[in-house]
Amino acid sequence: MSIYFECEDVKLPELNFEHVKKILKGQVRSKKFKLGLINYIFCSDDFLLDLNIKFLDHDYYTDVITFDYSDGLVVSGDVYISVERVINNSAIFGQSFEDELVRVISHGLLHLLGLDDKTEEDVRMMRKAENILLEKYLSLIV
């Protein structure tokens, strides 16, 4: 199967998607999973807020929501990313838009691979895994 990048109500961000696919596929293989179908859907804050309210009963903005359709060791899902939140967060955290976008894309995959971010320890592990994937991405674009 494969990984696809689409957009809902925003323009597709500029990013080297082939490099992103390479690191994501490598992460799936390294964790002994098989790649199913993963759709990344870029959208606006309002679009993602509507999903957050409708499906998660959360009435607040977020940068990413992951819907996990995995079956056993086959990793599949839809990952919705608010481009507006990524822009905002890149400014807050002093990161480039590209780095923050790769981090959020990685975050969605890591959820599909079983990582969570509900406790402080979960967040620490998630950030460490995100940083590893971001470093791999950055090494490909040099």
Q: Would you write up a description of this structure?
A:
The chain has one domain (2-141): Metalloproteases ("zincins"), catalytic domain (Collagenase (Catalytic Domain)). The protein has helices spanning 17-30, 45-56, 83-93, 97-112, 120-141; strands at residues 2-7, 34-43, 64-68, 74-82. With 142 residues, it is α/β, with parallel strands linked by helices. It has a four-stranded mixed β-sheet, with helices on both faces. Helix 3 (83-93) crosses helix 4. It has five helices and four strands, in the order E-H-E-H-E-E-H-H-H. Strand 1 (2-7), helix 1 and strand 2 form a beta-alpha-beta unit.
Q: Percent helix among the residues?
A: 40-55%
Strand order of the largest sheet: 1-2-4-3
Mean pLDDT: 96
Backbone shape: globular
CATH fold-level topology:
Collagenase (Catalytic Domain)
Number of strands: 4
Count of domains: 1
| CATH top level label | Alpha Beta
Please write out the topology.
Layout: E1 2-7, H1 17-30, E2 34-43, H2 45-56, E3 64-68, E4 74-82, H3 83-93, H4 97-112, H5 120-141
Parallel strand pairs: 1-2, 2-4
Antiparallel strand pairs: 3-4
Helix pairs in contact: 1-5, 3-4, 4-5
Which key phrases capture this entry?
Collagenase (Catalytic Domain), 142 residues, 53% helix, alpha/beta
In short:
By secondary structure, the protein is of the alpha/beta class. The chain has five helices and four strands; from the N terminus they run E-H-E-H-E-E-H-H-H. The chain has a single domain, classed as Metalloproteases ("zincins"), catalytic domain (Collagenase (Catalytic Domain), 3-Layer(aba) Sandwich), CATH 3.40.390.30.
